[in-house]
Amino acid sequence: MTELIEIAHPRVHACGRQPGESYCDTCKVRSLAVCAALGSEELPELDRIVHHTRAEAKTTFIHQGETAESVFSVTEGVVRLYKLLSDGRRQIIGFAMPGDFLGLALHNRYGFSADAVDHVALCRFERRDFDNLVTAKPHFLRRLHEFATHELVIAQEQMTLIGRRSAEERVAAFLIAMRERWARIKGPSVTIQLPMQRIDMADYLGLTIETVSRTLTKLARDGIILIVPEAVRVLDERRLAAIARA
Amino acid sequence: MTELIEIAHPRVHACGRQPGESYCDTCKVRSLAVCAALGSEELPELDRIVHHTRAEAKTTFIHQGETAESVFSVTEGVVRLYKLLSDGRRQIIGFAMPGDFLGLALHNRYGFSADAVDHVALCRFERRDFDNLVTAKPHFLRRLHEFATHELVIAQEQMTLIGRRSAEERVAAFLIAMRERWARIKGPSVTIQLPMQRIDMADYLGLTIETVSRTLTKLARDGIILIVPEAVRVLDERRLAAIARA
DNA sequence: CACACGATTTGATCCAGAGCAAGGACGGAT
DNA sequence: ATCCGTCCTTGCTCTGGATCAAATCGTGTG
To answer: Is B88 on the interface with A (CB under 8 A)?
Structure first.
């Protein structure tokens, strides 16, 4: 199992600068991003406890069932969160993208595993430190609660998708959802980046890899999308939305 | 659409007692239950804003898409939460039982509908009042955040159930989950109360009513459960758990 | 009691998506 | 360039659960 690479301790940033010296720009940008996600500009308090961390593709850095010792915030790349059944069946319960938090549940064990889809940069916090910070700052807690309830809404939407909608509807809704998530990060585009593999989409949508592939092919044959490596381009906005719409 | 019956305003309890008089016992017990759920004994503050409410079976009291004006806490009975697709397909996203909260998401519209499976008693709060209370009491906020993250864990479990497990596994897991929830409320029992209809189980598990019925019949034929009205009795603990286990 | 109505069970068929197998397409190593 | 390994696509068959259709069971009602 590949190890998580801790590129920076609170006082030793990736750039190699030493304590007391001014911020490494990359780390500063990342810390600020997490602060922004928490709705704050009080960088110093958060920066005292942040560990800047990197993970290569397929590195598993949260293991279902293990003691929850860290809270993460994604700053670059895409992370997949999944649950495994004992016989190997897998359900991906979500993709975490820049700005998202992982491991927020106040349980002492992780309920899922998480690994990097591509190269990922993360801010890591010791749970104890993070809890102290949140306890001291009720508006952080409020923000986290907003995150949690938003994730709950997404999860309920996903239950409906998986429980009651056809393969074509699931794939279309997934494409639309991915496009909206990227739009919030990078601005709107007709090209929907899909850094994850087909098998990840399948395990997220409760389908098989073959069904996902066939469904994408069908959407392409119908002139609704164009399949390109690592992405799809939307050709017919209206029809894609019509299929995805509940 | 049946109306929600507000049986008591803060100062006019169900028993008919008037302001200034001592508590109606039933209302007091219910208010206390909600306080306990919030991890507090500061009854007066909460009681100032609670509306004791009742709903008959099938009364819909949360409508998906409407402005979220109330927060509820169930004190008696079972509530089903569901999302409807435009063509009538329904996904039940959860059952709320005594002690559970509804409408906690900090969104201005409800993301689901809720109605009473059987006769239900609820404590209702105006969202504004509830928010003020929570903002004033960070430990309430913390408790609510715990609720939200716990619900998220349940929702993720359910995604896995619906996305990756067979009909028999879903039904067995549902029975075990229901038994554990009742056990926390009423203490352990080999009889699992099932106040909801087959169609509700089906819409919760992403199956059809026929499949639920057939699966229960199969479990009964295999000597694992005994089907009785409104409930099932567990005959073979071990085998049921083995099927339900992930 | 007979009847009606809704919930549930059971039976018979169907089909969307799973499972299996065989090719492509693409990138990295030699 | 060639070989590999991985991912993706496509064709074919199979099957779990959906769908359609009847009973059967309960419960309330005139």
So the answer is: no
The Cα–Cα gap between A164 and B84 comes to 10
- Note whether B127 and A128 are within 8 A (CB): no
Nearest chain B residue to A150, by CA: B105
Give residue for tokens 């496009």.
A179
* Interhelix angle B167-186/B237-244, nearest 10 degrees: 120
Q: Which residue has the tokens 């938003």?
A: A150
ipTM: 0.91
Residues B188-237: tens digit of each pLDDT: 999 999 999 999 999 999 999 999 999 999 999 999 999 999 999 999 99
Distance from CA of B24 to the nearest CA of A (A): 34
Radius of gyration over every alpha carbon of chain B, rounded to an integer in angstroms: 19
Tens digit of each residue's pLDDT (9 = 90 or more) over A205-231: 999 999 999 999 999 999 999 999 999
Structural domains in chain B, CATH included, are 5-158 (2.60.120.10), 165-244 (1.10.10.10)
| Angstrom distances, CA of residue A19 to CA of A13, A24, A67, A130, A173 | 9, 11, 31, 21, 47
